[in-house]
Amino acid sequence: MCPTSDGSHSLAAIVCDHVASGQKPILLAVRTAPEDPDDSGWQFLCASDDHESEDQAQVWLLSEVLRKHPELTWWVSSPAGTRLGRKDERSPWMPV
Ligand SMILES: [Zn+2]
Fold this sequence. Notes:
- It is a single chain.
- This protein is α+β, with helices and mostly antiparallel strands.
- The chain has one domain (13-87).
- The protein is built from 2 helices and 6 strands.
- The radius of gyration is 12 Å and the shape is globular.
- Residues 16, 18-19, 24, 45-46, 48, 51 line the site of zinc ion.
């Protein structure tokens, strides 16, 4: 079940509360430099401004995100600094 061999899928990723609860699709994916070895640096966000505070973001395993959103698998080894966006759930991911 593991499409890559680098072990990155057991790392943590930040998911905004809308995405975590299934209210909104992921429309923005950003990779920052990881702060610790268990962090992938990935943030998966709905791209709306409707975030009262960052506290509502959740930490998921990268593997969980990819299980629900396999279209992101291809991008997951992109380097820190990568920003991906898409117009809607059916649009392809593009660097932004
Ligand atoms: Zn959100």
